[in-house]
Design brief:
By secondary structure, the protein is mainly beta. 37% of the residues are buried. The protein is built from seven helices and 35 strands. A five-stranded mixed β-barrel has the order 4-5-11-14-13. A five-stranded antiparallel β-sheet has the order 9-8-7-6-10. The chain has a five-stranded mixed barrel with strand order 17-18-19-22-21. The chain folds into four domains: 161 residues, Roll (SH3 type barrels); 86 residues, OB fold (Dihydrolipoamide Acetyltransferase, E2P) (Beta Barrel), CATH 2.40.50; 154 residues, SH3 type barrels, CATH 2.30.30; 50 residues, no CATH class. A hairpin with a 2-residue loop joins β7 and β8. This is Tudor domain-containing protein. It comes from Callosobruchus maculatus (Southern cowpea weevil). It holds the Pfam family TUDOR.
């Protein structure tokens, strides 16, 4: 921990928290840090200004604070100070998902974030600290002690920990922001001010390493980490950092860094990709390089770089290469018309599905495509969970999309639950809308048919159908069209209903009926693991539980007896592989009896 704290003083960082002006904290050289909202003059409680909230105003300090207010007289020392060996509590975040703000940044493997939900109690704590220490003489301290430190640039008190004693000065780590500064005045901290956990969570993007020997200058990453808020999924932790998945506007920051060549994934590399499987598929990618119309590089989110050329180039009379070059570093929709010698012949479309005019004539290509791309298939064998089945057909959510499923459910719920009620839309056949399902959650659904007051929709990320009223339809926000469908319909000979809610392996090919193949149960062995349980059935949101849209065909999975040692249990609830609940099988009878008694008590109370 001490090593991590001391590394926070590195000059190679950018900040959104308290700033330091000491050259000792910058290694004596120029300031290479990237600063967001650095508008001159410190101020507030941490340097982040939000509409009606946050930690104070960037551009002013509390009106009652001035340089001398912390040493007016010999006020009685703190009466219940924490001992020098005391430590701050840490936020327990692993296995959760929160809106966060990045307070200090060094590189993608070392930055600090604050939970937005904790801002109100933290703001109250900061106000109490300012009032409590006003007029008190500063004191001395020792290395490792928790203290209150006066930040020199904004003249505001913050919680800190002493890293180094340098004569009459102290190098401290600000536990609520993640940065380091050299200060002249510190005070012992009252125990009551240590009750709120340290607000800065030290983070590292999960499954990422630099694309080279070391991370580049922090300014290189400023466009990726300078947004006001992110959605952060806390995946795991070690002794020094918490590993996270970070999302902004539906985009995975780690995948964005990989696709832009600024990082390398340490997850299982994209391997065994069967290029011929891409024929006839449509997907989003980023145009990374254009040498000419027959030499184009397009990158997928997973980091895979595809060599491409424009389809119909040989028969074109006019070409507009400048149009293509203007698309560099932009996301486009790619349709694969042909594959020759591992090079894709493609047609490109904008995010709304309208074709870019790059060739003329361009016969045989579609003028428009659906803005919501089908799920991309990179190999002939996929593994995932069956979310729905009909006669001769199963719908599979691939394992690698589990996090995306959960994220989409969360964002749909937050967007539409907080949105002012809109006018009911008039449905059209094949229109994709936001659907407020009977289970209380929001999903993407396609209109199959409708009459005067009822609509039959199919949930495109699951496959099942539901009949709903017009009032449950909303216009789908364009940002939710940028995510591909998250289930794959496979025609097979298996009894699909027996596979619902189970993990399967499918060997597929594209035939006359779309994706076809064989589907079998995935056999779990000690050397085989799957994470599909984290996403294809449920996802956390502002509700207690988020469920798959209702489907009358779904049957509850039956527990299969196993010959093994241990205690028999029943899995009652699952949030993630790191967070689930078990009940002892021998206690099920008592639990049911207790539940029955509770219902009777509640019922009798209501009657009274």
């Amino acid at each position: 921990r001490d090593g991590d704290l001391s590394s926070s003083e590195s000059e190679n960082s950018f900040q959104k928290g308290p700033r330091t002006s000491s050259r000792n904290d910058r290694g004596g050289g120029g300031d290479n840090r990237f600063r967001k909202n650095d508008a001159g003059g410190g101020g507030g409680y941490g340097g982040r200004q939000r509409d009606g909230g946050g930690f104070g105003n960037r551009h002013q300090t509390p009106s009652s604070v001035n340089e001398d207010s912390w040493n007016l007289s010999s006020v009685t020392a703190a009466t219940d100070a924490a001992p020098p060996t005391a430590t701050y509590k840490a936020l327990q975040v692993v296995g959760t998902e929160s809106n966060v703000a990045i307070s200090w940044f060094h590189n993608p493997a070392h930055f600090y974030c604050q939970l937005i939900d904790c801002q109100a109690p933290f703001k109250k704590l900061m106000e109490d600290i300012q009032l409590f220490y006003k007029g008190r003489n500063s004191e001395s301290s020792v290395v490792g002690a928790p203290v209150i430190g006066l930040f020199p640039e904004d003249n505001v008190l913050y919680r800190a920990q002493v890293l180094e004693v340098m004569g009459n000065q102290y190098k401290v780590f600000y536990v609520d922001f993640g940065n380091v500064s050299t200060v002249n005045k510190i005070w012992p901290i009252e125990k009551k001010f240590m009750e709120l956990p340290a607000q800065a969570v030290v983070c590292s993007l999960h499954g990422l390493k630099p694309n080279g020997d070391s991370w580049l200058d922090p300014d290189t990453y400023s466009l990726y980490f300078d947004k006001d808020t992110y959605i952060c999924r806390f995946v795991d932790k070690d002794e020094s950092k918490t590993f996270v998945n970070l999302f902004y506007n539906n985009e995975d920051i780690a995948q964005k860094l990989v696709s832009d060549g600024l990082a390398v994934s340490t997850q299982a590399a994209v391997q065994d990709v069967e290029l011929n499987m891409l024929l006839g598929q449509q997907f989003r990618g980023i145009v990374k390089s254009v040498n000419n119309l027959s030499d184009i590089i397009i990158a997928l989110q997973c980091g895979l770089a595809l060599s491409c050329s424009m389809h119909n180039l040989e028969t074109a009379v006019e070409t507009f290469e400048d149009v293509l070059k203007d698309l560099l570093e932009q996301t486009v929709i790619v349709y694969v018309d042909n594959i020759i010698d591992d090079r894709l012949e493609v047609t490109l479309y904008d995010n709304q599905g309208c074709k870019f005019v790059i060739l003329n004539p361009d016969e045989g290509s579609y003028d428009t495509v659906d803005a919501i791309c089908p799920l991309l298939v990179l190999r002939s064998t996929i593994t995932g969970g069956v979310t729905h089945a009909e006669e001769g057909t199963v719908f599979i959510q691939p394992t690698e999309y589990a996090d995306t499923v959960a994220m989409l459910l969360e964002q749909l719920f937050e967007h539409y639950e907080n949105l002012a009620e809109e006018n009911t839309i008039i449905p059209e056949t094949d229109q994709v809308c936001a659907i407020h399902s009977e289970d209380g959650n929001w999903y993407r659904g396609k209109v199959l048919e409708f009459d005067d007051d009822k609509v039959i929709v199919q949930y495109i990320d699951y496959g099942n159908r539901e009949t709903i009223g017009f009032g449950q339809l909303r216009e789908l926000d364009p940002k939710f069209r940028e995510i591909c469908t998250l289930s794959l319909q496979v025609t097979c000979d298996a009894d699909g209903t027996a596979l619902i809610d189970k993990d399967v392996t499918a060997s597929i090919f594209y035939g006359d009926n779309g994706w076809e193949g064989s589907v079998t149960l995935l056999e779990i062995t000690p050397s085989t693991t799957t994470t599909s349980d984290t996403g294809f059935g449920t996802a956390s949101s502002n509700k207690d539980n988020v469920e798959v849209p209702p489907a009358t065909e779904v049957v509850p999975p039956q527990a299969e007896p196993k010959q093994t040692t241990g205690t028999e249990v029943f899995m009652s609830h699952v949030d993630s592989p790191n967070d689930f609940y078990l009940q002892l099988k021998e206690s099920l009878g008592a639990i049911e009896e207790l539940q029955s008694n509770l219902q009777e008590e509640v019922g009798s109370s209501v009657l009274k």
